[in-house]
Design goal:
alpha+beta, Beta-lactamase, three-stranded antiparallel β-sheet, two-stranded antiparallel ribbon, 9 helices, binds zinc ion
């Protein structure tokens, strides 16, 4: 606790040191800040602009900062900052890795939609590629439009996705230090990652992305609950119940279901709006 790196990034209570898989299991912000700084400050890049552009190209290959091509109107591209974004904020030549460290944990000038996060979960479930998302009522035998069968690979080698899957498996099934251990589904290997989005206007937003089962996955989900607090507290159980229902046709964990049904975030949100 109270362990800081960079701009006030703090760890939750967890054992230390951590390896990559455990960083996902226990959601260690400091870990990602160190990795991000090591990329941005890598001497193989002649300048922060070059390093940042390389990082940006990789992030873009995961579908972020662009429309994915969904077949319903008004899809949002989200936000992926450019070198110019930071030149405008800080001045040309006046920013460095520490100035943009929030990007390491998905905050600051980056913005994603729930669709981007669900697509990200599917991409990890697929160990390195995604299909253009589209809306279907059900799948019949006729061949779909070929554009929905094209695999979009990221720039990250597919061999690196196994450890990510391991980490997301541990985040749900790894025992005491897992951020979403209490929403483990008996008999189903769900993999997930919690998120807690800072909100300058009030209570934090609760975020969770997941897929299941771990092998031959059938469903990927992103849950984003405004003003609900920790990702593990609310978004994770919602995703877990949806996964259980989708894969088994029923919800056996009535205690979790009832807790969600009785949860009330609207009052919290509207109270904050009044106070602002
Ligand atoms: Zn940590």
């Amino acid at each position: 606790m109270g362990y800081h790196v960079g701009r006030g990034v703090e760890c939750h209570a967890h054992p230390s040191p951590l390896d990559f898989r455990q960083s996902i299991q226990m959601s260690c912000n400091a870990y990602y800040c160190y990795v991000f700084r090591n990329i941005m400050d890598n001497p193989k890049y002649p300048s922060i602009d070059t390093a940042f552009n390389q990082w940006r190209t990789y992030v873009q290959s995961f579908g972020f900062g662009q429309k994915l091509g969904l077949d319903i109107p008004n899809e949002s591209a989200g936000m992926l900052p450019t070198v110019r974004t930071y030149d405008r904020i800080h001045g040309d030549g006046k920013w460095k890795s520490l100035s943009i460290i929030s990007l390491a944990i998905g905050q600051g000038e980056i913005g994603t939609t729930p669709l981007h996060l669900a697509n990200f979960a599917a991409l990890i479930a697929n160990r390195g590629y995604y299909y253009t998302p589209h809306v279907v009522r059900n799948v019949v035998n006729e061949a779909p439009d070929p554009k929905y069968k094209e695999k979009h690979y990221t720039l990250v080698d597919t061999s690196h996705f196994g450890p990510v899957v391991d980490g997301m498996y541990l985040a749900v099934n790894g025992g005491a230090h897992s951020t979403a251990g209490w929403v483990r589904i008996p008999g189903i290997d769900m993999c997930g990652k919690t998120g807690t989005a800072q909100n300058p206007h009030g209570e934090k937003h609760s975020v969770f992305m997941s897929f299941a089962p771990r092998e031959n996955p059938k469903i990927a989900i992103a849950v984003y609950m405004e003003n609900a607090g920790w990702g593990g507290s609310w978004a994770a159980p919602v995703a877990s119940l949806m996964t259980e229902y989708y894969l088994t046709g029923e919800v056996k964990r009535k205690a979790i279901e009832n807790r969600i049904k009785e949860g009330n975030f609207m009052s919290k949100a509207s109270r904050m709006k009044k106070n602002n």
